[in-house]
Amino acid sequence: MILILESNITQAQKDKIKVRLSDEGCITREIIDAGRNVMGIIGNAKTTPDEFKAIDGVADAVIIKSSYKLVSREFKTQDTKVKIGNVVVGGDRIVVVAGPCAVESHEQAMAIAKEVKKYGAVLFRGGAFKPRSSPYSFQGLEEEGLKILADVREQTGLGVVTEITAPSQADLMIKYVDVVQIGARNMQNFELLKCVGRMGMPVVLKRGLASTIQEWLMSAEYIMSEGNSKVILCERGIRTFEPYTRNTLDLSAIPVLKKLTHLPIIIDPSHATGIREKVSPMARAAIAAGADALMIEVHNNPDQALSDGPQSLYPEQFGQLTRDLYVIAPVVGKQLDFDYLKKSKMINTIQATASKTAAFIGEYGAYSHKASIGYFGDEIEPVPMKTFKDIFNAVQTGDCQYGVVPLENSLSGSIHENFDLLQEYDLKIIGEITIRVKHTLIAHGNASKEDIKTILAPPPAFSQCKNYLDQYPDIELVPVKATSSAVKQVKESGDTSAAAIGSAMAAGIFKMNILEESIEDNPRNYTRFAIIANQEKSMEKVNKTSIIFSTGNKPGALFEVMKIFSEHEINLVKLESRPMLGKPWEYMFYVDIEADIEHPKLSYVMDKLKEKSENLRVLGRY
Ligand code: PEP
Ligand code: MN
C-alpha cells in the first residue's frame, strides 16, 4: 500500500503513522514524487486503506496490486535517475558504458578506456571477478583488477562498473568502484541482492538467463527494500530455443518495463548476441526502443581476449556505433552527448557564488526547456524568460550562467531575432544542440477531440501542423507567444473546448492530456539551439566556429571572403545575412564553419579573413 500524504502534514503526524506501522510489523519508505509526498508501506498492514484515509495528514491510501512495490510505477510515477558521479542514468542523455569483458592487465584496461572515452563512453566496464561457465577458464584478476579499475577512473575520469559475485567482496567494491553489477547468473542470489541493497551504491541488475520480467523486478525489489533505490535494470538476452545468437535480446522488455517500473534500463547487446557483427544493429534498435543506456564490450585485441573476444567490438567499430546513436537519439527525444564529461567539468568549475542556471524562452515544458535539459542534464537549472532579449540580458549581467536560444528550424527557417541579438551583445556561443520538435495536441483530461473549438499555438507551430489543422476548418486558431504558454493558458482557463499545440513534456508538466501525438506535417522537424555564455569555454577539441562579419559595399566583397574558405577547403554549414543595426542596406554575415578557425594551424586563414572583411568577430568555438 502507499499513502499519499497531505502537503502540510506535520512531522509529529508522520511519526505517529510510522510508529503505528512499525507496531504492525511494516517498514516505511518516503519519497517525493511529482510533487506528492508518498509513503510506501512494506509488509502487511492491519490498518485498512479506509482507516488510513481517516488519519490526519493522509490524503489517500492506495493498494499496489503488483507483488513488487517500491519498484512499481504506482509507488513512483516519475522516472528514477541514477547518479554515478557526474553521469545520470535515466535522463534525456543516453549513457554509454563500454570496456572489455574482463580486466586483463593495467595496460589493456587503460588503452581500451582511452579509446572508448574518445568515442563517447562515459562509464568504463570490466570484470575483476568473472563468473565463468568453466572453472578452468580465466576467473579474473580479483582485487588486482579492482585496483586497475580505480586507476582507470583516476586517470580518465570515467566512472567504473564491475561485477560483484559474493557478499564478501562488498568492502573491496566500495573502496575501488562506482557501480556494482549483479550478473545474470546471480539475479536470484538473494543474499547478494540484500548485500548490494545495504551497500547503497548504484547497482546494474542483469536479467537472469531464463527469468521473467516479474522475477527480475522482484529481485530489484530485494535491493530497494534494503533502502537502495539506485538500481538500473540490464536486459542482456534470455535463453530461448534459437541457437544462431548466444541469447535472444528481448527488446520488448523496454516498453514493458517502462510501464511497470520507474527504474532506468540499460541494454547489453554484447552478451545478448554473442557475435560482434550483431552488436551494433541491436544497440541502435535498443536506443530507438527507448533504452536509457547501453553496455557494450569493446576490446583492442579481441582475438587475444581472455573472455568474450568474439562479441567485443573493435574500438573503431564502437566509434562508428556512437556516431549512429548520435543521429538516432533525437528521434526519440534523447541525446548522445560527446561532451558529457567535459561539460560536467565546466559546470563543476563554476564559482560557488555564481548561478548554475540557463535562461530559456517560454514556460516550463517549452522546446527550449527540453533543449536545456538535453544539453546540461539536471546539473543546470533552466529558468523561463519572457523574451529572447531577456535571455541575452540575463546572461550578460550574470543573473544566468547560460542561455539557450533557438537559431533555426528545419521546416520554418531561421529565428532572425536571435541572429540580431548575437550581433548586438558581446556574448559567446559555447555549444549547440538539435532537438526533434514533435508536436502534440493537448487538452484537459475530460475533453475529447470532438469538443475542441479553439487551438492555441505560436504561428510557426501552426504552419508546421498545417496539413493536420486543414482537416478542421471550423476550429479557430488563436496565436500566442510560445507552445508552453499555450498549454499553460489552456490549463488555467479550465476550458474543455480549447486545446494547445506543444510538447509531450509540456503536457506532463501541466498534467494535461495528449489528444493526438505527432501532428506536425513533416516528422523531420528539428530545431537547432545555441548555448550562449559570457565567457568562452576552454575546449581542447573544437569542431565548429561561428563568426560574424560585414563587408564593404563593393562588388564581389562577399565573394572575396567566401573564396578564402573555398581555397582552404573549409566547409561552411550555415550562412545567414542580417541587416546591420542602425545602418540601412548594409549587412552582417553570420557563418558557421566546420573547423577551429582560431587554431594556430589556421592563423593564415584568420589573417586573410581580417583583411577581406570588416567587423569580424568570433562568436564561439564549440
Ligand atoms: C558480463 O557483463 O561480463 C557478464 C558476465 O554478463 P552476464 O552476467 O550478463 O552474463
Ligand atoms: Mn562478458
* The CATH C-level class name of the largest domain: Alpha Beta
What is the share of helical residues? 25-40%
What would CATH call the architecture of the largest domain?
Answer: Alpha-Beta Barrel
Tally of alpha and pi helices: 21
- Cα gyration radius (Å): 27 Å
Shape: globular
Please count the beta strands (DSSP E, at least 2 residues each).
29
Total separate domains = 5
Structure write-up:
This protein has an 8-stranded parallel barrel, surrounded by 6 helices. Strands 15, 16, 17, 18, 19 and 25 form a 6-stranded mixed beta sheet that branches. It has 5 domains: 2-62, Alpha-Beta Plaits; 94-332, TIM Barrel (Alpha-Beta Barrel), CATH 3.20.20.70; 340-437 and 526-533, Periplasmic binding protein-like II (D-Maltodextrin-Binding Protein, domain 2), CATH 3.40.190.10; 440-516, D-Maltodextrin-Binding Protein, domain 2, CATH 3.40.190.10; 545-621, Alpha-Beta Plaits, CATH 3.30.70.260. Helix 6 packs across helix 7 (213-225). It contains 21 helices and 29 strands. By secondary structure, it is of the alpha/beta class. The model has no long low-confidence stretch (mean pLDDT 95). The structure holds phosphoenolpyruvate and manganese (II) ion.
